[in-house]
Each structure stands twice: as C-alpha cells, then as structure tokens.
Design a protein that fits this description.
YbaK protein, 5-stranded mixed sheet, RNA-binding
RNA sequence: CGGGGUGUAGCGCAGCCAGGUAGCGCACCUGAAUGGGGUUCAGGUGGUCGCCGGUUCAAAUCCGGCCACCCCGACCA
C-alpha cells in the first residue's frame, strides 16, 4: 500500500473529544472515524488489524472444535420475552417496530437465537457435544459509550455457544474454550488475566473474564499476589476481620441529635466505623428491601441482586423509604415488621454494635445479632476491598482496574429450558441441553492492545495483528536513484507476500519518521543516499531505538526471516 | 437519568463580556529552496458560526427553546 493513496490521514492534532490513549492514537493515526456516540467507522488500517484479530480468533475456535456460521442481527423481541432477558437488558436493547407493528430488536448477543436454532437441530445425545459460533455485529444502547472503541453501541463480537448433555460435558467444553481464549491473547501479544466473574442475570455456575490490567479500564479487579486468586470486584470474596467488642451487653437507647451518618455517629460516640451498623434501602423489582451491613463495609449490589434474585435493583427513593415507615438516618432493623431484611454476615461476628433507634436523633447501643433482631437472609453481600484477606490463602488482597477483553459463562440449562432446547438421552428421556456462552469483543480487543502497547510517539503493534508488517521509508525520494531503488524494494517485498506500507510521499525525514512511529508498524526500512552508499538499507524495530544496516542483496529473504521469527515468538499454544 | 463541559473551515483554537464585512495555526492546492526526527518562504482553496425562533436598522455575539458530542457518576452478559 502506498501512503499517498491510503484512505485515512495521520493528524498532528487530535480531536478534543478523545482523552483515552487508544482513542487518541486511533484518531491520530487515521484509523477510525466517529459517526455518533459509540458508533465508529473503521478505516483501512484499523480494518486490516481487526480482520487479523478475527482470523486468529477464527483459527482458535475452529481448532477447539467450533463451527462457524452466521446468525442474524435482526431478531424478534418475542424471543427475548420468552427468556425474560428483555427485562434483564432493559433499555440496552435497541428495539423498534416493523411495518406490521411487530417488535424487533437488534441483537446485543445471540444466546436466544443460538438456543432456538439448537432446539430444532439437536435432538439426540448423539448430536452432542456441539459448538457453534459466529463473528458478527452486536448492538447495545449503552447509557454512556466511552473511551473510543472500549465501550461502543455497535461492535463486532465473536460469540460461541456450546451444547452438552450434562454438567461434566459442559466443564469439558468450557475448559476447551478457556484454553482457546488464552491462545488468542497470547497470539495477539496481549497479557490477559483470567479472573472469576459474576455470571449476571442469566445465572449459571461459573463465569470467567479475561482482563487486561490497565489504568483506563472500567472494571475493578481484586487479586491476591500470593495465590493468584483474582476476581472482578462484583464477585470477589474476602475474609472480613472479626471485630470483638466484648461480651454482649444490654441494649441501651442514646441520644444522637443530628447524627444521621455513620461518619457522624462514629465520631460522636468515639467508636470505629466497624462498631456501627449500616442500613441501606433498596427497591428490588419494586419491593422495598432493608439491607444491613457493618458500618465500615460497602454493599456489593451485584451480590445483593443475586441473593434476592431480582432483575432491577436500585437505591430506594426518600419517598419510598418514608412510606415504609423508616426514619432516614436513624433506621434500625430492630422492631422492623413486614419488610424484607437482608444482612451481611459481617454483623454476626461483631458484638455490641451501634444501630439506629428508628426515631429521629436516637441510636441504640449494644445491638447484637441474633439477640435483638433477625434477618430474612444472612449471607455475604459485602464489597471486597484491597487490604482485606484473600479467601484462599489469607494473603493481602490488592486492587487494579482492567479492561474486560473476554467473558465466558457456564449457562447450564436456564435458557434451554425456557426455549425448549431438549435432547433425548440414551434411556429415551427428554433432557435440557447444558449450554455455555463465550464472547470476545474484537474492537475492544484492538483498543486494549493499543492501551497496552504504545509509547509517546504512537502505537507499537505486535507482528501478528499489525495492519502491515513493514514500513518502507525512502528519504529524498525526488532523488531518482532513491526513487527507483525504493520502488524495486517495494515490489520485491510484495512479491514475497510481505505486507508492506510504502511511504511514497515527498515529505521531509522528520514527517516520515514521526508518521512511521505513530502508525507503529513493527519493522521500518529506511533507504537514503547514506544507506545506498553502502549498498544497504536501515532496518529498525519499532520497539528499539537503534537501526542496523542490512545489505540490499538478499534483503527480502532477511526481512521474511525477521517477520517469521517475530511471529513465532507470539505463538506458543496452551 | 443526575452533575460538569463543549459546539465557529477536515483538525486545534481566537472572536462573544461591550452587536457593525468571520480570523489564526495545522492540514489541503501552486511555486521555489531545503531536507536523517513534525524545514522555510511566497501565493491560494475552503465556513448555512450546531438547529429553530425572538429582540434589533443590523446577531457568531443578546434572549428563549431544542439538538449533538465529551467527561464524572449511576448503569452494564
């Protein structure tokens, strides 16, 4: 490709709207163009990289036994209503009506469609196990698209669905995918951490995410440096320190005028936050719910949602709280009637806590569970934090932010039961198919790659996913000798199927080098009067400062060798 | 949806407060010189000032409404 003909120009200044590195570099390098919030066009350079990533994914999916097919983006909303996931997705689902007033949705994912097809295609245990996948455009009406390609409303995703006869079969399929995913990240040169994740509204047993640890990420990862325990903060467990406040004492009412927050109460009574009881009120699918947790710990709403089993969970409004007869700021689980109460297990290991008095300006001292109140459910609903102890090895937990570049789920039989995807077992009984779902967002992977691999000059592509392998950079091109040599080298490299981008512009060396660094092609070949004097060209890796001279004679063979060596460093299958 | 911000040429911005022929830099076109890390000079092309309405002799500028985009939060298989 000649840069003079390339669709998409590099820029010196970047649109003010971009403030994430990958977004800035993608714009600066002329690789993407924004059309609306969270909607992008991919220009030729980005498209080449995206296709390479897709192909790596395709190869690994095929290797693991997946069969590629294509499912439609346009889906009847009815299908989503059958599984109830229209509610779970809520407004994230793009929906509209066709000319006959039938409601349609642009698929945010394809479990429903895949399951529907499986229900008619798979009939016997002899048809299982089976894995199908496609690479296709998804639509999600995100509340807030952000950070360039990191969170968008239209994006390409590879999603694979596995179908098995039982839990053990699912485990096998799941592990195959897990290995395939690790191969994908390795081949893309992207260090992705495998972590435990919440499986969300669809339920299911296990779920894992692949995270690229990076400050611009949107997810918090809690991990243990000692035993490699790592989990999404929504899922993470920790050992809560026990707080002993002595033997249970008699309950006592105390005046706390105007002290309505944990902060105020604790400092007023000169006790640590951990000796207080915090009350939080939620509306869970419309039901008013009272949540109690130790004062120093935050509620993990994902855990809470799973415990309650609701689809919509939000903090209750002041009106709702008042309607439930609760005195905000002085709420208490004691003497509560007819309100669903959920408590974190942290309150069972502490004694003599300070709780609200259920009337203004009053708190209760020496509150003890279960002596003074009961909860409908007692379990872990706490947000794990860095500094707490690892649930596996007692080591100290740490926290980082990360970009989610893959998510895999053991779905179990939830969807197959809803949609009637059954098979006949060897005994002749009808059984629901065990399903798994495995997704990778291609564009986000690209963004994560750039976040992970760049310097202040530009992108640094791994050889496997670079738009081009070689950047050919002749200096003083109007010198006819250079021009001719450069054209020859360009043609030689191309004839050996080396992917080369040729800076055939008559620009100054500074401009060319800066653009080369910005585009981030792994190998740069410079040809100038200076190198020609020695019958050589300069070859420089994007990752290195220094260039070295390579003779013109045998150049193509040498370059081919460098490329394949670079590629082989990226592929060591798990 | 709550909070904050921005819309003027392809990009970055000034002009608005105090209404009076729309400007600068980059990019782009022409020419010349130069050139190993965004080179210089000269000449040029390009704008419904986000949209609709109001005030006014006159609106990029003042007033009202709307829209779009960005950031933080909430939300998120």
């Amino acid at each position: 490709m000649r840069i003079s003909k390339l669709f998409g120009k590099t820029r010196r200044e970047i649109p003010a709207e971009a403030d994430t590195t990958s977004h800035q570099l993608l714009l600066k390098a002329g690789m993407i163009h924004q059309i609306a919030a969270g909607v992008y066009a991919y220009l030729p350079l980005a498209w080449r990289s995206l296709r390479k990533i897709e192909n790596i994914i395709r190869e690994e999916m095929n290797e693991a036994g997946g069969q590629e097919m294509m499912m439609p983006a346009l889906q009847p909303l009815e299908l989503w209503q059958e599984t109830g996931r229209d509610q779970a997705f809520g407004k994230n689902l793009f929906t509209f009506s066709d000319r006959r007033d039938r409601q349609l949705t642009l698929g945010p994912t394809h479990e429903e469609v895949a399951t529907k097809i499986a229900s008619s295609t798979i009939q016997s245990y002899r048809d299982l196990p089976m894995m199908i996948y496609h690479i296709q455009t998804k639509f999600r009406d995100e509340l807030r698209p952000r950070a360039g390609l990191v969170r968008v409303r239209e994006f390409t995703m590879k999603d694979l669905y596995s179908f098995d006869i039982d839990e053990e079969g699912l485990d096998i399929s799941y592990n195959k995918m897990l290995r395939a995913y690790q191969n994908i990240y390795n081949r893309c040169g992207l260090p992705a951490l495998l972590i435990e994740a919440d499986s969300g509204a669809i339920g299911g047993k296990d779920s894992n995410e692949f995270m690229v640890i990076h400050e611009s990420g949107e997810d918090e990862v809690i991990y243990c440096p000692h035993c490699k325990y790592a989990a999404n903060a929504e899922k993470a467990q920790s050992i809560k320190d026990k707080i002993e406040n002595g033997k249970p004492l008699p309950i006592e009412e105390i005046a706390t005028p105007g002290m309505s927050s944990i902060e105020q109460v604790a400092s007023f009574l000169k006790v640590p936050h951990s000796q207080t009881l915090k009350a939080v009120f939620y509306s869970a699918d419309g039901e008013f719910t009272f949540v109690v947790i130790r004062g120093d710990i935050e509620v993990n709403e994902t855990k809470l949602k799973n415990v309650i089993g609701c689809t919509e969970l939000r903090l209750a409004t002041e009106t709702e709280t008042a309607a439930a007869g609760i005195t905000t700021g002085f709420a208490s689980p004691i003497g509560l009637n007819g309100i669903k109460t959920i408590a974190d297990d942290s309150i069972t290991t502490s004694t003599n806590l300070i709780a609200g008095g259920n009337k203004a300006d009053t708190h209760l001292k020496n509150v003890n569970y279960p002596r003074d109140f009961q909860a409908d459910i007692i379990t872990d609903i706490a947000l794990a934090r860095a500094g707490e102890s690892c649930p596996k090895c007692q080591g100290k937990l740490l926290s980082e932010t990360g970009i989610e570049v893959g998510h895999i789920f053991k779905l179990g039989t939830f969807l197959s039961q809803k949609l009637g995807a059954m098979f006949i077992d060897p005994e002749g009984n009808s059984q629901p198919i065990f399903m798994g779902s495995y997704g990778i967002g291609i564009g986000r992977l690209l963004a994560a790659l750039i976040e992970n691999s760049h310097d202040d000059k530009g992108i640094i592509w791994p050889m496997s996913v670079t738009p081009y392998q070689v950047h050919l950079c002749p200096l003083y091109r109007d010198n006819s000798n250079i021009e001719e040599m450069a054209e020859n080298i360009y043609n030689d490299l191309k004839s050996q199927e080396i992917e080369v981008i040729f800076d055939d512009r008559n620009e100054s060396p500074g401009v060319k080098f800066n653009d080369a660094d910005l585009l981030g092609i792994p190998l740069r070949i410079t040809i100038s009067p200076r190198t020609l004097e020695k019958n050589s060209v300069e070859v420089k890796w994007r990752t290195e400062k220094k260039a070295h001279l390579i003779p013109l004679e045998g150049l193509t063979v040498k370059v081919k060798e460098l490329i394949s060596r670079s590629l082989s460093e990226l592929s060591n299958p798990v």
